[in-house]
Design brief:
Layout (H helix, E strand, L loop, with lengths): L3 E18 L2 E15 L2 E7 L9 H10 L1 H5 L4 H7 L4 H18 L4 H4 L7 E2 L2 E3 L4 H10 L5 E5 L5 H11 L4 E5 L9 H10 L2 E5 L19 E3 L18 E4 L1 H4 L2 H13 L3 E4 L6 H10 L5 E2 L17 E2 L2 E2 L9
Parallel strand pairs: 5-6, 6-7, 7-8, 8-9, 9-10, 10-11, 11-12
Antiparallel strand pairs: 1-2, 2-3, 4-14, 13-14
Helix pairs in contact: 1-4, 6-7
């Protein structure tokens, strides 16, 4: 068997302007890239360490280094999936293994994981958390996008939803609360969202404190994000959520994300495929998962000031499948 050599690197990519949500603002996307060389071919995977889940770039590098022997000894994706916990480090390695297999075999990843040839998808455009007038201005500038995703933060969210809905009457609007609502204001905010024709509310309550969602009506469908990491989480969420947001960094790779998508559909959930702010290398495998999703939120690379060579093609609201020069 040809020898596999693993390397990993922390990279920083500037964001166009800044990106703000309820947990704070940032001006750069810090990612970790895993690279696997074998027989002169390079497989790559990118992940985004997320402090919300106790990850840092350094901790992810440590986890990747701990898996070096496993990967360099020829372990396949199933062995990596079993040996590593879900999270960003496993995502980078899993996606690099998929890419390397494609390069070595000459078969595109989409031929292995997509039931039909991949097509361009309509992705949401994310509007950072801000004052209502700031968010309205951003929505007005992107009012031609069919789907807008609003980052919310609790206090003032009714005004934010109202301001955006007023300037983008034709858009389908997703409200992402990022765990910032509470049991005290949940019902009022959900009714306000319904009144502003919001199509979906994402993670209104903190993960682990969301039992109330099983006991109240949902005038707007509710999507699990922080509450849903892998396929094993889904059965326990069936009475609380109407949809789930699959992110490869949470799931720990393309392999688990595909399993999670299929299990979600078996349980009757609508599926969103989302992302962190990162380069097209992070988005590429997610575009394949999203071929069978009801909601697509893969504008992460579009929010950067610059992207990788051969990055995903964004044409207005459409994001195209990855080219082989990038991944897969």
């Amino acid at each position: 068997m040809p020898t596999i050599t693993l390397s990993a690197q922390i990279e920083s990519w500037p964001i166009r302007g800044s990106f703000t949500l309820s947990r704070g603002a940032k001006t750069e996307a810090v990612v970790v890239v895993c690279r696997l060389m074998c027989d002169g071919r390079l497989g790559q995977g990118e992940c985004v360490p997320y402090a919300r889940y106790g990850e840092t770039p350094d901790s992810v590098m440590v986890q990747i280094e701990a898996a070096r022997h496993l990967v360099e000894s020829g372990a396949g994706r199933a062995q990596v999936l079993a040996a590593m916990a879900p999270g960003a480090a496993r995502n980078a390695i899993d996606c690099a293994l998929w890419d390397l297999e494609a390069k070595l075999s000459g078969r595109r990843v989409h031929s292995l994981v997509c039931r039909t040839p991949p097509r361009p998808l309509t992705t949401a455009y994310t509007i950072s958390l801000g004052e209502p007038e700031e968010m309205a201005a951003a929505a007005r500038a992107h009012a031609n996008w069919p789907v807008l995703k609003l980052k919310l933060g609790g206090e003032g969210d009714v005004d934010r939803m109202r301001a955006v809905a007023a300037v983008a009457p034709a858009a389908r609007i997703i409200a992402d609360a990022n765990e910032s609502w509470s049991e005290d204001n949940l019902h009022a905010l959900m009714m306000a969202a319904a009144g502003q024709r919001i199509a979906l509310i994402e993670q209104p309550l903190p993960a682990g404190c969301d039992a109330m969602l099983a006991t109240i009506p949902h005038p707007v469908p509710v999507c699990a994000d922080e509450s849903a990491h892998t396929a094993a989480d889904l059965e326990g969420l069936r009475d609380r959520y109407d949809a789930v947001n699959i992110k490869l960094d949470k799931a720990g790779g393309l392999s688990e994300a595909l399993a999670m998508r299929d299990r979600a559909h078996e349980f009757g959930f609508a599926v969103m495929v989302g992302c962190m702010v990162a380069t097209s290398l992070s988005m590429a495998p997610a575009v394949l998962v999203a071929q069978e999703a009801q909601y697509v939120d893969l504008d992460g690379a579009h929010l950067l000031a610059r992207d990788r060579p051969h990055g995903l093609s964004y044409s207005a609201s459409l994001v195209s499948p990855p080219r082989p020069a990038l991944w897969g």
